Known about the structure:
Elements: H1 3-8, H2 12-22, H3 49-65, H4 76-101, H5 106-124
Amino acid sequence: xxxxxxxxxxxxxxxxxxxxxxxxxxxxxxxxxxxxxxxxxxxxxxxxxxxxxxxxxxxxxxxxxxxxxxxxxxxxxxxxxxxxxxxxxxxxxxxxxxxxxxxxxxxxxxxxxxxxxxxxxxxxxxx
Length: 127
């Protein structure tokens, strides 16, 4: 094997690691976490056929409406829910700041920080 071929040869583990660095980890429609797969190749974008179908319907509706392809269309209900979750995240973060200013114990701060993290994880799911 030539030196150039040896330099470009990449192990399967390295390919999987490289793919997981750039591949989406959440469903492109519902936001659920996608299962880890050790397969090499194209990574799943959706958690199931129904999410794939909803995403297709949204893409075709956006194309018909003349909006730019990177547009995100949210209903008033979805916007209100997103605003509520953002408010919850802000309140949780303010609770941590207040507890720290009041000299809270490490365990209490850890618990509050866990609540902030849980709220942020929930917020990652836009739909």
